[in-house]
Amino acid sequence: MGIASLSGGAIGAFAATLVAVVAGGPALSVLAASLAAAVAGAAFAWRAFPSDDVAAAEAALRSLGDGQTSEAHTEATPASHFDARAVELANLRLEARLNELTLLHDVTRSLTSTLELDELFRRLTELIGATRTFESFAILQVDEEQSALVVRTTFGFLPALDPSGIRLPFTDETCRQVVQSREHAITRAIPMDRSRLEGLGWAPKEGTLLTVAMKHKDRVEGLLVFSRTESDPFTVGDVELLRNIAGQAALAISNARLFEQTVKLSLTDPLTGLHNRRHFFARLDLEVMRARRYKTPLSVAMIDIDHFKNLNDTCGHATGDVVLQEMARLLQANVRRIDTVARFGGEEICVILPNVPRVEAGVAAEKLRRLVERETFPGGETQPCGRITVSVGHASFPEDAGDVDGLLEAADLALYASKREGRNRSTAFGPHMRSSQRAPVRIPDEHAPVLAPPEPRERASG
Q: What distances in angstroms separate CA 222 from CA 140, 151, 260, 275, 382, one per listed residue?
């Protein structure tokens, strides 16, 4: 049954049913309610106006869309006399509202089904772009630590340029205003800030920008920035729709960001910011499997701060914590991006070196040792050698061990060798190190051999 054939009561029932069905969230409820009002108003307009007064019908439809009524027209016009063109106009308005409601529903359903930020921004761009109602737009995320906006995804930009990842400082007045007010802004009479946009391959010579804040509670998660070449293209309906979308996007971004922070905290050492022991073992398992499959080398270096107990006893644990933090930053800044630096425990730090054979691992270990030796750390003057130093032991796969446990044992034995030989040195694992361990003592017996429990292996202090 077409909309033109619906009676006023049927349309009212349809509108009420639509509100009940789609009101699954605050934004959907508002849009559904406005849709119901538009449908009911359109039904009244069809009955109220003669066919020779199209302009009056359109004006009345606009007023009805704002919740107004006209009793004079109701009394003057028979209920059976309505304008076909007013029906068509009402149908177009209803179709537009349905499309908006569908888009908002799709955005909500899609964004709430993922907790990965990259995937979330990709889906949001895809859904808005599919409407083909905006010439170009960009999604920017707020980076509060660096007081900048990060371009996450774009639509309608020059194909040769990919601005994703570019950081924009808060120098643009419009963006700063929207972030501070947590609302939206329409910038007309472009030329816009071309220095900001030309670098993104997006600098229309004229038109309008609509900037909408993606806010959740009192926090602005980012901005939606839309561009059209017309001087005044964004209607009140456009702004309201995009504000609803921005609200749903902000909620999804907030959830994804909190999830990302939780995962990071579970894999990060809170004192040094390095990977923790859990992440270290997971990563080492992965690297050993990769090295075994592709027959590539893999090395591990164990680093231990010399006389660290003496530092804590002399200068206090607060100074020891600062030394650990600065040591972590120094080591992290002097390894490759594919290397993994983790706090193994106490004052021990481990480095996983993928695709590094035995000889090159020795060079890398000695480089890190020298970097620490040359660095000035707090409390270094209280140490036996007048500075903070480290001992390093390293081992390689598959020469020294064929699995994770064996590789760590080999690196640990090499570290003990560095300690025994005077500290502040790096040592490669050698097969003799295993044989030098205290072996179980066998006591002869004429009936059956008895193994005495091995004495515990003592470690040099500090």
A: 5, 10, 17, 29, 49
Q: Across all residues in the chain, what is the average pLDDT?
A: 76
* Structure confidence at residue 241 (pLDDT): 86
User: Which tokens go with 220?
Assistant: 């602005």
Token digits of residue 433: 């190190």
Distance from the Cα of residue 224 to its chain's centroid: 17
- Assign 24 to helix, strand or coil: coil
For residue 180, what pLDDT band results from cuts at 50, 70 and 90?
A: confident
Kindly state the tokens that stand for 168: 């924009």
In sequence order, what are the beta bridge partners of 154?
138
- Calpha distance 82→91 (Å, rounded): 14
Q: Which of 245, 247, 242, 246 is nearest to 227 (CA)?
A: 242
DSSP-H helix ranges across 421-459: 432-435
pLDDT of residue 35: 45
Tell me the two tokens of residue 460. 């040099």
Q: Mean pLDDT lowest for which of 190-199, 304-313, 321-330, 367-376? A: 190-199
Catalytic residue among 95, 347, 446, 455: 347
Other beta carbons within 10 angstroms of residue 397's beta carbon come to 24
Query: In the CATH scheme, what architecture does the domain 277-443 have?
Result: 2-Layer Sandwich (3.30)
Q: What is the mean pLDDT of residues 368-394?
A: 95
Quote the CA–CA distance of 281 and 278 in Å, as a whole number. Answer: 6
How many percent of the chain have pLDDT more than 90?
38
Q: What is the pLDDT of residues 231-286, one digit of tens each?
A: 667 888 888 888 899 999 999 999 998 998 898 889 999 999 999 999 999 999 99
What separation in angstroms does the CA of 144 have from each of 118, 140, 219, 220, 222? 18, 12, 11, 10, 10
Q: Which helix (H) or strand (E) holds 26?
A: helix 26-48
Residues of the chain within CATH 3.30.450.40 domain(s) are 114-266
- What percent of the chain has a predicted confidence (pLDDT) above 70? 68
DSSP designation for 380: G
For residues 138 and 63, give the distance between their C-alpha atoms in angstroms, rounded to a whole number. 34
* Every domain range in the chain assigned CATH 3.30.70.270: 277-443
347 is catalytic: yes
pLDDT classification of 338: cutoffs 50, 70, 90: very high
Radius of gyration, alpha carbons of the chain: 35
Spatial distance between the Cα atoms of 341 and 350, rounded to a whole number of angstroms: 6
| CATH for the stretch 114-266 | 3.30.450.40
Kindly tell me the burial class for residue 2, based on how many C-beta atoms sit within 10 Å of its own C-beta (0-12, 13-18, 19 or more). exposed
